[in-house]
Every structure is written in structure tokens, then in C-alpha cells.
Amino acid sequence: MPSIVDVGQLAPAFTGQLLQPTDGGYDDARRVHNGLIDKRPALVARCHGTADVADAVRIARTLNWKSRSAAAATTSPAARRSTTAS
Length: 86
Fold this sequence. Notes:
Number of strands: 4
Largest sheet: 4 strands, antiparallel
Radius of gyration: 12 Å
Structural class: alpha+beta
Number of helices: 3
Distance between the termini: 8 Å
Strand order of the largest sheet: 1-2-4-3
Order of helices and strands: HEHEHEE
Strand content: 15-25%
Mean pLDDT: 75
């Protein structure tokens, strides 16, 4: 799995957060409402806009990862996120 530095080089204009398992906030970002689901994606991308979503999808394609997307249950566009899993 690439380090966060490698991922940052893939999306230099990304304005949200790119969280890997070793990063603070990763566990909160990957958690879903259903406590029976315990997925541990290689990367969680907290997107701030459509350009960030496009970057997150491009990262997943470049690294040949499967990707999943989810929107946070808030009205704040900054809280929406896209989750990328290996």
C-alpha cells in the first residue's frame, strides 16, 4: 500500500483529507452507522467538492483499487466523503 506521501503526489490539488489506517481520524472516518460492518479501507478520502471526488476516483483507478462512495448524513458539503478501498 502506498504511503500518504505517494497518495498526495497522485492528487496534489486535493483539498479534502486523505486518511490511511495509520492516520489520526481514520477510525472515525471509516466507521459506518451499522456497527456490524467493520470495513478497513486502504484510504478514506474526505472530499470538499466534485474535483476532490474526481481525484479520489482517479487515485483508485491509478492504484487499481476498488472504490466505494458514501455521503455523510449532514447538510454540510464539506462533510461528504468518498471511501476508497483496496
